[in-house]
## 1
Amino acid sequence: MLLVNTAAELSKGDETFLQLAAGGFRDMTRIASSPFDLWRDVLFANEGPLLDTLGHFAANLQRLRNRIIEEDEQALAEAFEQARRTRARIPRDTKGFLHPLADVYVRIEDRPGALYRITRALYEADLNIQDIELLKVREGTGGTFRLGFATEADADRACEVLRQAGIEAFRPDDHGN
């Protein structure tokens, strides 16, 4: 919510500012589209820990601001390296407390009906997509979807079904082969 409101303030009503925001910004700010009624109880039921965390975050922002003002390149590099190492520890095959998923990557062309071809083939094979994520897209060329399945066997079968339908699909360990 604050990130979106800050962007709105900085844009001063210039819609170009928000149009330049990439998909990561939209993903990171999805809670801003939720109604306040949904978050009211969460905020007030967790007031103490939330205030502590906001204080810690504000201190980290001030520390970052100071490093930039001081042009402390070494401290900034160390902070980036620490963040990189921490992010690398986030499990890739889970969604929070949910069970790990077996991933399939699918490359498709940027044209109408491409996603429908994928979902129809999997539906006809009675395969359930547990999670779907658009990883990257290049306008006019295509994109890559990550499909999550409940089991390794379902993911392997999905690859087979999609390949038989003429759709490029691979498991992470296949490296696209």
Note: The chain has a mean pLDDT of 86.
## 2
Amino acid sequence: MKARKTLSSWLVNRYLLIIRNEENFAEKSTFSFTYAKVILLAVTVFIVLMALSLLLVKTLLAQWFDPRHAQIEANKNLYELTLKVDSLAQEVEEKDRFIRNFQRVLSGDTSQVYSDYASSVNTNQEVVSSQTLTDVNKLSPIDSQFRQEFEQTDLSLLNLNNGAYTDLQEMFFFSPISGFVSASYNVKEGHFGVDVVAKKNEPVKSIADGTVIMSSWTQDSGYVIAIQHRGNLISVYKHNAELLKKVGSFVNAGEIISIIGNTGDLTDGPHLHFELWNNGNSVNPEEFVTF
């Protein structure tokens, strides 16, 4: 009577797989196996393939298989862009305020500069009423007459130290550009620098070592670049066609900073308008720089 096979015996029974050549029936390979080993190998391969598939679906293939992937990535990018735009807007606002204040300092209007500074520092404090500021700024008739007479004399603040800049006379300045002076320095006419006419696309150079404190566009003067030198000296270069340095850049004496141009409303031809300011006062550039 044939013995009845059980599941355990069926799993552990050994079998031999022989591979023969079809032409001469010669043995090529032999494999010994049991059904238990075959099932174990199949389950292991299945688990490995499943884990690898899940890993790929969550990483490399997520953009094709996960419908939320696109929305998640879009939200992440939107959040990063929002942070960048907010920081850029704040930086642009601070730079615009700095440029406005610097232009007012050059024009001699320091009252508005102080007002902007006070408003930026005391944003959470009570602002002084406009009526109070108006009352404070009012001058008596005697003060107004004295101020008018003082401004008409040659003793204005812009000329107090004219000819007495001994520290500047000891310094050596590079020529910003080679050309001829078409308009000289004249404080009474509001011309605080010299206009130098040169060749087209001529490079403009820094007169001394310093740090760029302004590199921007203005409606009147076009592309303007200003450099802070040692000894409270500032050099200003206006009406450029192109600016080659940014704010905060350190430049060496004689280094190219811009290209001569004809930008801005207050210009009638390609030239460089060059100014020198020492301790807040304008200086005649022709007394210290050779063009």
Note: Confidence is low (pLDDT under 50) at residues 124-136, 154-164.
## 3
Amino acid sequence: MPAEISAPAAYFDITKAPLRISAVRLKVRDLARMRGFYHSILGLQVIAEDAQQVTLGIGETPLLLLSGDPALSPNDPQQAGLFHTAFLLPARADLARWLAHAIQLGQRLQGASDHLVSEALYLADPEGNGIEIYTDRPLAVWHDAAGNIRMATEPLDLQALLVEAGDTAWAGFPQDGCIGHVHLQVGNTEKADRFYRDIIGLEIAATYPGARFYGSGGYHHQLAGNIWNSRGTGQRPSGMAGLEAVEITLNAAELAQIKTRAQAAKMPHSAHSEGLTLHDRWGTEITLKA
């Protein structure tokens, strides 16, 4: 069992994990519409923008970068790339307030699940990019008697969740929120293991039919890969809207180890001033920043 990271109130402190998601970059066809969606529905703040790109996040911390190009082909849900970006809220009450906000705006949900380690709501943006809004359960309930992380997909009681909102309205994405994980579509889970486990250095925290969940520092997953829609797919076409890159923050020692493993495996990679960029075998860019 991986070493656990202590956190106040027995909740996992994802900011202390050795590897953590810092931002996601999407290529979009309608930049203005997508900017409006993430600002109004998710409550992300616009940090910077010009005619080609919008950066959204919390305060001065970027979480989502949108690059606009009307010439892109529409996202194909059977290609490798993004299954969903998962935005982690600090408390169950925040999830309840976001749900009430979504209902008020008439935002359609695609699902609502109790995953044992977390409670999650699912939707998609106007161009079909999957989104998860979730909150973690206390760390103490994550494991079975043998110390393995238990995950499942069970119905979530939305009425019971809404009670948690109280009289406080959603006021935008919380200051302590972040991107908790990114779930990818891949063509083969064993080949995904050879990149995300063997090169990036993440642990297989849990498995599910057709999916792997990769964690760092004892978290249930910072990254995941599934073949539910994309079994056997090849490289994602470069001119297609959707996922452009996942940015991961880590310390310098971890970065050096990943570079050494990539060199030993003769895997193409590029070093830059902030860190290292690699691509999985389906073309998904992983940018590592120390």
Note: The first strand starts at residue 19 and ends at 28.
